[in-house]
Amino acid sequence: MTREELFEEIKKKRSFLCVGLDTDIDKVPSHLLKEEDPVFEFNKQIIDATKDLCIAYKPNIAFYECRGVVGWESLRKTLEYIPKEIFTIADAKRGDIGNTSLMYARTFFQPESSGLDFDSVTVAPYMGIDSVAPFLGFEGKWAIVLALTSNEGNKDFQYLETEDDFLFEKVITTSREWAGPDRLMYVVGATQPDAFADVRKLAPDHFLLVPGIGAQGGNLSEIAECGLNGQCGLIVNSSRGIIYASGAEDFADKARMQAKKLQEEMQHLLEKM
Ligand SMILES: O=c1ccn([C@@H]2O[C@H](COP(=O)(O)O)[C@@H](O)[C@H]2O)c(=O)[nH]1
């Protein structure tokens, strides 16, 4: 998917919401457990309930690969079920020496080998250019580089001071040379609102994938203040806050209500742009 197509979807839906499909079999409502593939059935109902309100879905791969072959099959079916105009993110946080990274890239971008055809994958930049480059070699696909994450542990490395900036800023200034804003996005956690102005100085045109609203306490209007750019430039994720809004038979209706609340807030913020 191109940046223009993504922006068109944002304008059409008046939303920059990403629904995180972090589907934990232990949290799937009990009435679905009799289904052949309860995880897929859960995801299917979440997608049906939210697809007009969001512009992206982000399955976190851990929730699928921990279940082995069965989990990969739930993931494949889920991805196939997502409407083609909606951006898909494999939140896998991959990255290794070049030839290994290429295999990871094929896993998510080459349906003829893996059955999966994601638009993007999250990538850890710690190993440098040759670990990220293989993800940038697929037409129409995106690498989403971890810059400043939403967790407490971000202080251990990402806020270390280098000559004239923090390490997460160095990640951006170095990696923005590897590919432009049509191929590369950055993860910036919603729990770090004060960093958005600095990030925007370094990456004015890049899309930022922003996890951490809802369950982790990030605030949408705070990050929108400095994070929005002329093409929106934000994809804001909520996983647990939407998909586990209810653990009962009404889970899809309750998920829709939470997604709708966020979409309305986003519409308001986009109108102010
Ligand atoms: O910095 C990061 C990077 C990724 N994540 C992932 O996003 C979702 C957040 O889930 P919530 O339930 O909305 O908190 C989850 O898949 C994380 O692994 C992140 O939170 N922070």
Automatic annotation (TrEMBL):
Enzyme Commission designation: 4.1.1.23
GO molecular function, one term: orotidine-5'-phosphate decarboxylase activity
GO biological process, alphabetically ordered: 'de novo' pyrimidine nucleobase biosynthetic process; 'de novo' UMP biosynthetic process
Coiled-coil ranges per UniProt: 245-272
Domain Orotidine 5'-phosphate decarboxylase: 16-255
Family note: Belongs to the OMP decarboxylase family. Type 2 subfamily.
Protein known as: Orotidine-5'-phosphate decarboxylase
Native organism: Anseongella ginsenosidimutans
